[in-house]
TrEMBL record:
Residue intervals of the Intradiol ring-cleavage dioxygenases domain: 60-88
Higher taxonomy: Bacteria, Bacillati, Actinomycetota, Actinomycetes, Kitasatosporales
InterPro entries, per database record: Intradiol_dOase_C (IPR000627), Intradiol_dOase_core (IPR015889), Intradiol_RC_Dioxygenase (IPR050770), Protocat_dOase_b (IPR012785)
Top-rank lineage group of the source organism: Bacteria
Gene Ontology terms, MF aspect: protocatechuate 3,4-dioxygenase activity
Keyword set, alphabetical order: Dioxygenase, Oxidoreductase
Cited PANTHER family: DIOXYGENASE, PUTATIVE (AFU_ORTHOLOGUE AFUA_2G02910)-RELATED, INTRADIOL RING-CLEAVAGE DIOXYGENASES DOMAIN-CONTAINING PROTEIN
Enzyme type, top EC level: oxidoreductase
A Pfam family per the record: Dioxygenase_C
Gene label: pcaH
The protein, known as: Protocatechuate 3,4-dioxygenase subunit beta
Family the UniProt entry places it in: Belongs to the intradiol ring-cleavage dioxygenase family.
Length: 211
């Protein structure tokens, strides 16, 4: 069994939550975006720079549905990830793996009328994260989904099938046994691009309940 995820304790709020008297005021003063602000190149992380990024190209796609199976359309889906060497394009990432000048590792798209989303990217590498001695995070992609307001947000992670690091990862193991496999994408050759990219399917259910 892996050691417990110690980071959860340090990330808990240390002060009382802020009470908002007028929730509508939060929306009026928050960020605003429209469909025109999200372009096709935003969802293809391999086309955002002059050169081609290093690594195995993949497509990640699926549907966003509610707890009754109805598609959620117009949903803003954002991702961020490490490069093929396991390093984020962020100044706080001090991993000794090389940066890729042609890969920033961030993308976004809007779901269509049937709730579909699709990204083209590269498979991220594992990286050491200092949680305990010789600890490595399995390959994963971070997902963020906004609801009808910027105060409604789900942040989660997608993993890859067959990764030997999964049983050793405190975050993955911190999820109830029955739900862990929901975080693992499925390889789907129908989603692959011949000669270019492997395809993975990962559907997202917005429960809206206590789970």
């Amino acid at each position: 069994m892996p050691e417990p995820y110690r980071g959860a304790l340090s990330r808990q709020p240390q002060r009382p939550l802020v009470v908002v008297d007028d929730p509508e005021a939060v929306e009026l003063t928050g960020p605003v975006f429209g469909a025109a602000d999200v372009t096709a190149i935003d969802s293809d992380l391999t086309r955002q720079h002059p050169g081609q990024p290093l690594g195995q190209r993949i497509t990640v796609s699926g549907r966003v549905v509610d707890r009754t199976g109805r598609p959620v359309h117009g949903q803003l889906v954002e991702i961020w990830q490490a490069n093929a060497a396991g390093r984020y394009a962020h100044r706080r990432d001090q991993h000794h793996a090389p940066l890729d000048p042609n890969f920033t590792g961030a993308g976004r798209c809007l779901t269509d009328d049937q709730g579909h989303y699709r990204f083209t990217t590269i498979r991220p590498g594992a990286y050491p994260w200092g949680e305990h001695s010789n600890s490595w995070r399995p390959a994963h992609i971070h997902f963020s989904l906004f609801g009808t307001a910027f105060t409604q947000r789900l942040v989660t992670q997608m993993y890859f099938p067959g990764d030997p690091l999964l049983p050793l990862d405190p975050i993955w193991c911190g999820v109830p046994d029955a739900d862990r496999q929901r975080l693992v994408a499925a390889y789907d050759p129908e989603l692959s691009v011949p000669g270019r990219a492997l395809g993975y399917r990962w559907d997202i259910v917005l429960d809206g309940g206590p789970r």
